[in-house]
Structure formats: structure tokens, C-alpha cells
Amino acid sequence: MQESERAADGRLLSTRDRILAVSLDLFNARGLGRVTTAEIAAAAGIREGNLQYHFPRKSGLVEALFAAFEAEAVAVAGGMPADAGAPEALLAYQRAWFDLIWRYRCIYRDGIAMVEIAPALRPRVHALRARTQALARGVFEAAVRAGRLRIDPEGLGRLIDNAWIVSGHWMSHRLQGGTALTEADLDWGFAQVRDLFAPYLVARRPV
Hints:
Tetracycline Repressor, domain 2; 2% strand; mainly alpha; 2 domains; two-stranded antiparallel ribbon
């Protein structure tokens, strides 16, 4: 493997970026606590010493992955639809969040292991949750103003809290049988959150 490769979108990946991409794939497949740096180096086609040059400790690697997730989470949560009243707008917004969860499912599935490996992440996890919830509330409040949702402010707060609880824990529920997660599980989790909002949706009136 060469020192750099191209991503699927044609971007040239540095060794550091390749390490992060390989790590995310392995962590998603097997779990944050079950993958060693030696396995990551082998999968990236580099020596373990080269990996340690970029990430001297596994905690630094996990922190770097969380930073990437953090940036995407803020972008997705703050993605105000162009037309908050459009019937498909909230569905697309919620689906984007679940697609993000799927790409970084190791963070949701292995949250306890993550902060054990990288304790410095604990306050960042809490801060990110508060920030993304606030951004999401802004999107849903826009939907209320646009007439797409009919719910009072207090009820909206409870609805967002419940959606966050389901979004954060559907994986552990589906894994109770001990099987690996599939995209069918992702669709199931998305349906649970989507249906929380169904009683409050208002069909858009023709202009």
C-alpha cells in the first residue's frame, strides 16, 4: 500500500486519514474495545510504529474519530431545511441524523468503552449532546412556525428528549439477542423516532 491513497470521492488520503478511516471500519465492525492498534496498522498497510507516530496512544485515535463525528453532528443537527413546512423536510432531516449514527455507530454502541479508553471525551460528549439538541430544537421550532408540526413548546421539549433517548439507545435494544447490527436495524430505529413525531404532523395545505 502506498503512503497515500484516494478516497471513494477521489480525495487523496494522507496516512493519518487512512488510519482514521480503517479504524472507524474496524471499530464499527468489532467494537472500540476489541480492536488493537496492531490490527489497525495491519489493516492500513503500515507498521505499528508508523501508526504510533500519528497516534502514540489509542486514546488519541479515539479522540480524533470523535472530533470528526463532532463536526459532522453539529452540521447535521444544524441543517435547517430550506422549507421547514415541506412534507419531506423533517423526514429528510431525521434520516440524515440516523445516517450519521450509522456511519459512527461505534460511538453510540460503545459509548462506555469510548470514555474508558479516552476519559477526556466525557465532558465533550455531554457538551455535544446539549449543543445538537439545541440545534435540533431550532429546526423543529421552525417546523412549528411553518405549520408542519402542531405542538406546544413544553410538549416539543419532551418530544425532542424522547427522540434523543430512542436515537441513543435503539442499538442496545436491537443487540439484546447478541446479533450484529444491519441496515435493517437502522431502518427499524429510524421508524421508532419517525413515529414519535407522527401524531403532531400537519399535512401541508395547498397554496
